[in-house]
Amino acid sequence: MRPSRGAVNRVLLGLLGAGLAVGGGWVAVTSLVERGDVGFGLPGWWPAPDAGARLVDRDALSRAQGYGWWVPVVFAASAVLFLALAWWFLGQTRTRRPRHLVLPKPGVRLRTRALARAVEADADRLAEVSGSRARIDDTGARPRVTLTVDLEPRAEPAGVLRALVAGPVERARTATGACRVDTVVRFRHPRHRAGRVE
Predict the structure, then answer these.
(1) Is pTM, for the whole model, over 0.85?
(2) Is pLDDT at 1 greater than 50 in this prediction?
């Protein structure tokens, strides 16, 4: 199963945060002990830096800049890093709306627009619904159904929600073969503002 974008982001951010926390803690503890601000010393295995160590060796940096390949390599590496981060950022803002959903049976796919129209027709048959619009998205782990439902003037949203979950949403889950379908329902009442239920 393909991992979701949110799961990948959480893993990457967790690794980055853990690395920064370990590095920052090492620098902080080493500095405090060397200055005598705490009442304990470092164990023998602690990887403390040399007294004259610097983050950037200026002599080595000057020698590296004397080579003809240094500047192009630094610019190329910076450009690749920038493009990779920009691609990752744009990937977070892109909404995945596939044209087909892959069903559990090998070689069988279902058009998302056909499923959305079926969900709309199913919802429109409810007595307290005057119209609906459905959208099917792919969250990576399971399908996601977004329903915008226009209610009749005397409709009770709670009852309509129960009917939608037991009817159109359950039949969409059965059609896709998914164990669960994430669902967002937005109600629009002719005399009230739109409400949203997840």
Answers:
(1) no
(2) no
